[in-house]
Amino acid sequence: MGRKLLFLAACLVVLSGCATASRSQNQTMTSQLQFRVGDLERQIEGRDQQIKQLEYDVKDLSYEVGRLQEELKRARGGSSSRSTSGSSGAVALPGKDEPIIRIDVDPKDVQTALKNAGYYSGAIDGKVGSGTKSAIVQFQKDNNLKADGLMGNQTWNELKAFLNR
């Protein structure tokens, strides 16, 4: 009978060790999977940022192509047109009536941020004119951005830090 009890106790010890090892393995696998999911989420966020940047670049290039097409028409003595269609669809041609601010941001916020950053000295009136544009250009130059005088995502991402100062 003593042997049977000893054998039974040994079996219980072995079985409980296996269960503990199995639980430990499951916890390790769960931790690894959670880490991998977090890593994939960070990669997706990075790709989303790349896509947003590419969308901005495409829009910016579209405006630039339109501007160059307009200059070419004027140089050839052709009539001015507001849009041209090509193989990729309609392209809006910028002119003097085209907006300087090309993102969804209040012009007063742009002027306030420029003023707080020391680039704008005019009135915060929401009227975007040459003073605002020259302030944007100088800000872009000083921050190693494309100095085109247009308020796009890249410029605003740098400038908005000055909005609440």
Strand content: under 5%
SSE order, one letter for each helix or strand: HEEHHH
Largest sheet: 2 strands, antiparallel
Backbone structural class: mainly alpha
Structural domain tally:
2
The spatial strand order of the largest sheet comes to 1-2
Radius of gyration over all CA atoms, rounded: 31 Å
Average pLDDT across residues? 79
Give the count of helical stretches: 4
Provide a descriptive summary of the structure in words.
- This protein is mainly alpha-helical.
- The protein folds into two domains: 27-92; 107-162, Muramoyl-pentapeptide Carboxypeptidase, domain 1 (Orthogonal Bundle), CATH 1.10.101.10.
- It contains four helices and two strands, in the order αββααα.
- It has a two-stranded antiparallel sheet with strand order 1-2.
- The longest helix has 75 residues, at 2-76.
- It is elongated.
